[in-house]
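User: Please run a holo structure prediction.
Assistant: Happy to. Please share the sequence and the ligand.
User: Here you go; the ligand is flavin-adenine dinucleotide.
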Amino acid sequence: MTDTDVIIAGAGPAGLMLAGELCLAGVRPVVLERYPQPRDTPKASGIGGQILNLLRYRDLLDRFEAAASDPHPPPRFPFGGVHVDLRGLVDPPLRAVAIAQVDTERVLAEHAAELGTEIRRGHEAGRNPVPRHHISGRQQGRSCRRARYGDRFRQR
Ligand SMILES: Cc1cc2nc3c(=O)[nH]c(=O)nc-3n(C[C@H](O)[C@H](O)[C@H](O)COP(=O)(O)OP(=O)(O)OC[C@H]3O[C@@H](n4cnc5c(N)ncnc54)[C@H](O)[C@@H]3O)c2cc1C
């Protein structure tokens, strides 16, 4: 039985990053991910822009760079069919870390778990396959979980 403040649907980059941020704010989240195992489907091949500053601020950038295929790729970005080439600039305003999304998710999952996030894989949020005995809610009228899930979040 688990009591939790917030249920996050999905262990993608957004859900895992949110989980870590909530932990740092003193909120206890549970992440439900419908797939039982992390999937290595090729998706994003890097991260760049302002998120790098946020990761540095959270002392996480070193971990991403360590997991990257290229921690400091030349500032040349594919954007749709256009390649933005910033290599001629002395101080390019954009930076990137070449890291496969599966590795981004692994680093974020490790970070979130270290901070106290419970990640439950093989559970789909919001549908019947969510086992009632795995999630319980506090009896608070302001609970957004109760608003979303109603009686399925009675305290046990
Ligand atoms: C082929 C491809 C190439 C891409 N290349 C790039 C790129 O080069 N650069 C870039 O920035 N982006 C790229 N993207 C986009 C990038 O992958 C997405 O922006 C990113 O995955 C979005 O993260 P997310 O956490 O919001 O969602 P997702 O990564 O989609 O994660 C959502 C997760 O939630 C789970 N889920 C959904 N509903 C439920 C539910 N009800 N209960 C439990 N679990 C649930 C899903 O299984 C999934 O694991 C690419 C995407 C694809 C498909």
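The chain is about 30% helix and 15% strand.
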